[in-house]
Amino acid sequence: MHEPHDFGLDWRQTLAHTATGARRVTHGTFWQSWTRIVSDHTATLRPIAPGDDPSDPTTTHAFDGVRHAAIGCRFEMPARPVGGVVVLHGYAEVPSLAESIERRAPLLERGLAVLAVRVRGYPGSRASVGDLTSGDFGWIGHGLGPTPKGGSAEGCEWVLLDAVADVLYAVAALRRQLPHGSPVSLIGQSFGGGIATIAAAQANAIEQQHPESTINRLVLGVPTFGDWPWRLTHLGPETAGSGGQLARLLLARRDDAEDIQRTLSLFDAAIHARMVHQPTICKLAVRDEVVPAPTQAAIYNALGSAPGEKARFITPYGHFDGGIADARRHALFDRFATDFLDPANEPSATIGRWEDVLVRGGRAPDGSAA
Questions:
Q1: How far apart are CA 330 and CA 314, in angstroms?
Q2: Could you tell me if 222 and 296 are in contact, meaning their C-beta atoms sit under 8 angstroms apart?
Q3: Of 185, 172, 196, which Cα lies nearest the Cα of 65?
Q4: Residue-wise pLDDT tens digits, 309-347
Q5: What are 184's strand-pairing partners?
Q6: Closest CA to 158 of 23, 249, 231, 227
Q7: Would the pTM of this model clear 0.90, i.e. be above it?
């Protein structure tokens, strides 16, 4: 297999990339109207039977998202919880909910409750909406069209808008299962990382009115949805993942393409990242085509988190099998994330301990191998 495209940039230029798009005039109006739409709902976890959503029999719980969709998840609670973590997933080849929980077993060992969530339309969250991952334009194409006139979110049918609300409902639902005052954090990988970035920004915007949706710490792995103007000019319909599906949709709907791109700009994770002030760590690839590496960096470089409370962890590749050394870097990031999310550890102190391996290496600060 050929290495992922470097887009004509060396590693320094890739990691220094910043968003080329600007915040639209209607950005504030759109998201304020979205807040009014989603504010009156209270999400509560409820146990379900394995047959309630046969698309993933390992689903243990659900909660009601927007438009009355049942959002499936799997919930594991340690004996003495000290906090909780909501775990999101990637765009393709999604593991079962049971596998997602197993991968986060170290968090449970630290006393963190884990809620693995399936975005609506994925296995485990199909009972109400069906399979939204099939079709020429995939999940990302469902409901995507021009933004309604007036800049309001009312009338916007894009499934991504609903997914952002569902993530905040998941955070609130998990918080209700924990002792009062417990921190709740969010992990998002790739597709989940893009959604997590937008959700964290909106959680901050509504924090005073809805403290139950507060996200205390954020972990992003090769996050998507960043810098759409750059991405759409560098990818084609043959590209894998959501970027290629969007390129095909824009070709099929040429008459609406300009208006659809305006909608995309309202969901640019690199623009939303400016409103993210939580302690955040972010895994960035030097080379990646599925989620272009420069767009990952644009999200990290825009983060509004305080100096000393954000860090980038570098891997050679993102959505590409780069061999043993690269796999070790990804495994090492998971260990870094576990340390970072442990409420017993201060974010800045944790980042300081890991500083020597943020760029290269295959061993944790204690000398153990990944």
A1: 9
A2: yes
A3: 172
A4: 999 999 999 999 989 999 999 999 999 999 999 999 999
A5: 84
A6: 249
A7: yes
